[in-house]
Specification:
Four Helix Bundle (Hemerythrin (Met), subunit A), 2 strands, mainly alpha, 267 residues, globular
Length: 267
């Protein structure tokens, strides 16, 4: 072992001896607890309750990072703890919920779909951790795993809301899980809602639109949350299709520029 490695290990150990930040890690622990309780509810057959706890976990997951930044308590430990909690709450939990609720009749095809959702979620988290310093903060590469898990939970709640029998939740549910798994590891870009300009002064029309949206969501929360999440899930592929001509023109311009530079160097 090199001296540099020993020194780095010593710094990490010294940092851990000084302690960890309590508040943001408690919020992360709450997210993990909600995910675990969702698993318990799924095993007990309370699938709508399990779906609700996934949403609670998602709310806690959205708060822990904000609490850490607001209180100046960001740490490497918190980042690693958050990733592990996300894998359980948004990977294992929704995969188990979907298998127990709808995929069991499919046999091997069903549990493979559940495992594919889990492994793609794990790959999505690993890629995010690697690319966090190199990818623009306004966009996520691939569907975020909390959004995928929330889409699963909203689907369960939608079926219970309309009282649809289990005979309806066959191929559509299986296809949804495969789609979410693919989108998590895709290169489609999704808005992250981390743009600082988003919380700054906005035109009056934005406030009016937000109020109307809140009223509509309050009137039919299950339907509207499902619709909003579905639009977000589809926003990545739609954005890719809409911006395709512009990207092609940019690629051609870059290619022509490289060719012109190469020809000038040959001369």
């Amino acid at each position: 072992m090199s001296d540099e490695t020993i020194a780095a290990a010593g710094v990490k150990n010294e940092s851990m001896k000084r302690g960890i930040y309590l508040l943001p890690n408690l919020v992360t622990a709450a997210s993990l607890f909600a995910g675990f309780y969702s698993i318990v509810s799924s095993l007990d057959g309370n699938y709508s309750t399990a779906a609700m706890w996934i949403f609670i976990s998602a709310v806690c997951d959205g708060l822990d990072g904000k609490v850490a930044r607001m209180t100046g308590t960001c740490s490497k430990f918190g980042v690693e703890f958050d990733s592990l909690a996300d894998l359980v709450a948004f990977g294992v939990t929704p995969a188990l919920l979907m298998y127990a609720w709808a995929l069991r009749p499919f046999g091997r095809l069903g549990w493979v779909a559940a495992f594919l959702f889990l492994i793609c979620g794990a790959l999505r988290l690993a890629r995010f951790n690697v690319q966090v310093e190199t990818v623009e903060s306004k966009r996520f590469v691939g569907l975020p795993i909390p959004a995928a898990a929330s889409m699963v939970a909203s689907t369960v709640l939608l079926f219970y809301h309309f009282g649809w029998p289990s005979s309806f939740k066959k191929l559509a549910i299986l296809g949804l899980l495969y789609l979410l798994a693919f989108l998590m590891v895709s290169n489609f870009r999704y808005y992250s809602f981390k743009d600082p300009a988003f919380i700054k002064r906005q035109p009056f029309g934005f406030l009016l639109l937000a109020v109307v949206l809140l009223i509509v969501v309050a009137a039919e929360p299950v339907i509207m949350i499902f619709a909003i999440l579905l639009l977000y899930v589809l926003s990545g592929p739609i954005d890719y299709i809409v911006t395709w001509p512009r990207r092609r023109r940019l690629e051609k311009a870059v290619h022509k520029g490289r060719e012109a530079l190469s020809n000038s160097q040959r001369r």
